[in-house]
Design brief:
This protein is mainly beta and 149 residues long. It has one domain: Sandwich (Jelly Rolls), CATH 2.60.120.10. 12% of the residues lie in helices and 42% in strands. It has 2 helices and 11 strands; from the N terminus they run αβαββββββββββ.
């Protein structure tokens, strides 16, 4: 990693989320990702946008184990591209459940306000996530039990 990128990286957030705008290669991003701890939610992420106020959020996210991320929605479309591992995204609604299986190279667009559940089926599943910013407390809305029945 270049000295400039290393300094930029060290100045970014600590713990399981870090900012790394303008990396020189995907290898730099993957190397930085492996040096980070996982958060209490089992994820770690590199944000390729400068800050929470950016109009476009581009992230590389890794799940440490086969696990489930709770049912939730976003007020904007969300695009995913699976780099490594396997996962399913289940859309939950009053009428039916639709499950999409993703393997390395798969692409998925999740429409705004769709309640979905993400299951990581393999350790070290890594994917790109792209969605509109800025980030605020309503960027991820966890579903209530009555919305899942």
């Amino acid at each position: 990693m270049s000295r400039h990128l290393l300094q930029e990286f060290e100045m970014s957030m600590t713990k399981s989320v870090r900012y790394m705008p303008s990396p020189s290669s995907e290898d730099d991003v993957m190397e930085a990702l492996t040096e980070m701890p996982f958060g209490s939610n089992g994820l770690r992420r590199i944000c390729l946008h400068p800050d929470t106020q950016s109009p476009l959020h581009v992230m590389v996210i890794e799940a440490n184990n086969a696990m489930e991320f709770p049912a939730h929605s976003h007020p904007c479309d969300e695009f995913m591209m699976l780099i490594r591992g396997e996962m399913t995204v289940s859309y939950l609604s009053e009428n039916a459940e639709k499950k999409v299986e993703l393997k390395a190279g798969s692409l998925l667009l999740i429409p705004a306000n769709s309640i979905h559940l993400v299951k990581f089926l393999a350790p070290s599943t890594i994917f790109y996530e792209i969605k509109a910013g800025p980030f605020n407390e309503n960027s991820t809305i966890f579903a209530k039990a009555d919305e899942l029945n």
